[in-house]
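Supplementary notes for students who missed Thursday's class. We covered one full example, reproduced here. Read the sequence, then the structure, then the short commentary at the end.
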Amino acid sequence: MQINPGAAEFPHRQIAAHITARIRQGDWAAGERLPSIPAIAEMFGVAKQTVQRAIDQLRVEGVLITKPGSGTYVRGTRRRLNRLSRGRYGGFRGYHADLAARYRQQLTEVGRAAAPPEVADAFGVADGTELVVRRHLVRTEDSPVEIGASWFRVADAQGTSLERAEAFGRPLYQEAEEEIGRRYVTATDTISARQPSRDEAEQLQIRPDTPVLHLLHVAYDEARRPIEVAQATWPGPMTTLTEEYRVPGPAAEPDPDPGLVLG
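Structure (token representation):
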């Protein structure tokens, strides 16, 4: 394998492209360990530091994963999020058993906390207002894939099951509707990309320079009053967002004004 020292692309990026191409070709399968850094350096005739930069780049992009004391491996397929938060409600307001089979959600904290700015803005309250929060961590078989939190007004959740540290046998929104007495009617999703906080990087087991995707989900009742504000954060390079929808057909030609004379 050769790199082109006269190319505009940096050598470590050329090596990263070669490794990615070999993975796509099936030379290295998901879960397979790559050769050692000295071995790859010998393949390309470059310094070990150059290979390390290529490996670091591919780790940030989610192509590779390094296991301390074991080596560098090809990461499995990316987590695919279908229909964004809309999927939590389902076509018939029901629970998706396939999601429960693929992902394990662990409730990590239930209590009262100061509202962060984006949550406070969504509720229309001052920063730091005390709210009820339910935090969770979602894992696949091999790694964490989401950290999230659902926030409720204290006046709505006080004394209800939403303040208890227990999992429900149904979606959270159904529990909230019954306990609060208001129905979820509309919702908005706002997605942004950013660098993770130190705590987020530790929980998601990613490098501090790995970008994350962040979702702010606000659910409203029929009077457009927020019922729940939910946050979710995912490792950006390992996550794809996919939504399938129908494209409207052409509009019918309007009937000519019967009072208009043409000609």
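Commentary. The CA atoms of residues 66 and 72 lie 4 Å apart. The two ends are 75 Å apart (CA to CA). If anything here is unclear, bring it to office hours.
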